[in-house]
Amino acid sequence: MVVPAGVAYNAAISRCSRAGLHPRALALLHEMRARGHHADEYTLPPALNSAALLRLPADALHCLLLRAGLAAHLHVANALVDAYAKLSRHGAARAVFDEMPRRDVVTWTSLLTGLARSRSHDPALRVYRDMVAAGVGPDEFAVAAALSSCAGATALELGRSVHAAAIRLALDPFLSVGNSLVSMYAKTGSLGEAKRVFDAMRVRCDPITWTALIVGYAQNGRGRESLEIYAEMVRSGCRPDYVTFIGLLFACSHAGLVDAGRAHFRSMQADHGIAPGPDHYACMVDLLGRAGRLDEAMDLLNRSTTRLDATVWKALLAACRTHRNAELAEHAAGMVWRLDPTDAVPYVMLSNLYSRAGRWGDVARVRTSMKARGITKEPGCSWVAANGVTHLFYVEDRGHPRAAEIYRKVEEMTERIRGQGYVADTAWALQDEGPEGREKGLAHHSERLAVAFGLLAVPAGAPIRVFKNLRVCGDCHAAIKMVAQAYGREIVLRDANCFHHMKDGACSCGDYW
């Protein structure tokens, strides 16, 4: 070649990295150095990208660029921040970021997207705020990542602020931004805003766009409308993908549409050539399990040629808990433990099933086994935002500055809904204690404390938005639905399963979740 060898190697390494030929890119780097050519500011960025995408440590390349005196080179340092962020080594990414004498929008975006991708949503949003405060205008990638973290952190108001910034910077026409907006509004329970963004999008040829809306409607208790959106998607010529069918089956499950779910499960492979994966089987088990068709669910799993993961068996276990089938629940729990012996979910679900059946000896046995193996369950918590501040509550929580007011409001709520016919379903209480103690324990669940605070702090006329990290119990669901009617408020409760829009004594889930 008539060009210098170093230039030729740089071009080849860059092209291989862009084409996804990452092992070849790194092999060329090794060959280049073996022949005595030095890596420079054009060599290292694509090599770092390839190493990160292959999940290889970036430390050796980091040392190489330090020896080459390139640590302060903006393009190289940006690639290093991006590589560490892609590898979820956020401490290393932040350390490089903090040492950079100069940063540009790529620097900030690399750190932000890495945090958002690994679901470190609160740190990602802090980076976004710092970026704006530093006077750096976000690009479409930064806006999409910030919106993704707003969805993950259920930060609706900040999400609206990011949306306003996107409009101001003329970034809203970008497909990635539109998709992220639809997803953010849907995942924070603002379905009307999600639909308005979707309707305003000029281009809707991407299955991600449609899938975000399909899943959003399903999660917000409007499964039948999810199916209508899917039909519109097919008519538009946009082909569904693997994730689209997860959303469809989820919609069928939460709307109790067994026949439609079966049809879509068959259609995904027969009509679209998409082989069902563990996520699809989990949705089908959930669909059949909710309908009480446990034998059919088990038959489906026995006929499956897909390698099933713990999610599938946990879906079966949840159905067994609902229908109080202890024998099949024990089998499902055993399958989960075979795949992940440290998973706390089977212990919690079995304990819940046994307690509802009054089998306190089995409850004690499960808890003893759990403790002996050093396994701890995730504590249930709920949070609600008021005046820009998020307030977090745990069961029997008295650490809030307004705890006395909150507990008085809980008592008031309970008395008011008793007048409407509320009777506590103490089968949902896990403690083996007297009826009065079990009823009081239910009244002090974290979601009820959050609702009580919402009644005190959220202005009348505004929805009270409560979020819970676990599934809401049946008694709290019934009680909060009645509270919404008794106080003339709209309460939006998002649990680990779906959104519950409660108003006028009814819930969007149709009491089927």
TrEMBL record:
| Keywords assigned by UniProt, alphabetized | Repeat, Transit peptide
Give the record's GO biological process terms: RNA modification
Q: Where are the PPR repeats?
A: 5-39, 104-138, 206-240, 343-377
Q: Name the domain of life this protein comes from.
A: Eukaryota
- Family matches, as InterPro entries: DYW_dom, E_motif, PPR_At4g14850-like_plant, PPR_rpt, TPR-like_helical_dom_sf
Instruction: Cite the DYW domain residue spans from the record.
Output: 421-513
Q: Name one Pfam family in it.
A: PPR_2
Q: Which GO terms describe its molecular function?
A: RNA binding; zinc ion binding
Looking up NCBIfam families in the UniProt record yields: PPR (TIGR00756)
Q: What is this protein called?
A: DYW domain-containing protein
Q: Specify the species.
A: Triticum aestivum (Wheat)
